[in-house]
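Thread title: Can someone regenerate the structure for this chain?

I was given the following input by a collaborator and told the matching structure tokens would be attached. They weren't. Posting the sequence so someone can regenerate them.
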Amino acid sequence: MEILQTTLTCALTRWSPGLGDNHPVGWLTVLVYLAAGIASVRAALRRGRDGEERTERRFWWIAAAVLLFLAVNKQLDLQSLLTMVARCHAVLAGWYDERRGIQKVFIGLVAGGGVAAIVLGALILRGILDRIWLALAGLAFVCSFVVIRAASFHDMDGLLGSVAMGMKVNWLLELPGPLLVLAVALRRGRARQAG
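Best answer:
Regenerated them for you:
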């Protein structure tokens, strides 16, 4: 318990909330997250309460919660707090010098977990998968991206900070997921409520 308290104290003294991506494209990303979250709420509200409609309704509420959290997280930079907690724990527990290997394993586990989440989600949502599979894939992609970014793997940081087509690779990788959810949510939000 003492190492947990020491780790949290260390992390909170080295991290402070602030704007994580104070750039026009960073703010555009926040707006895309918000739009996708709001569209997901609308899609949820348009679903009925019976059978497959109830399952789809739950999916859209979960998608809305995740996307609205990510909109807030985009500028509060909460993943930096997670990174700082891990860094402080690594130093205090004496495994900081081995962090590169641990980060590689972590990214592999996240990638595997993302694939497993898609497969599990597809099984659970199989009755409505034809309606929401692109949104599910977009959600899984963006969540995996955010977790990997939080790992602060220096090779990954170098890639995310690089520029392609005049934009940071970070933006090119972060935007497709919520845009997919937004597109599907808008279509499902316009669909008439059944039952």
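Residues 51-76 form the longest helix (26 residues).
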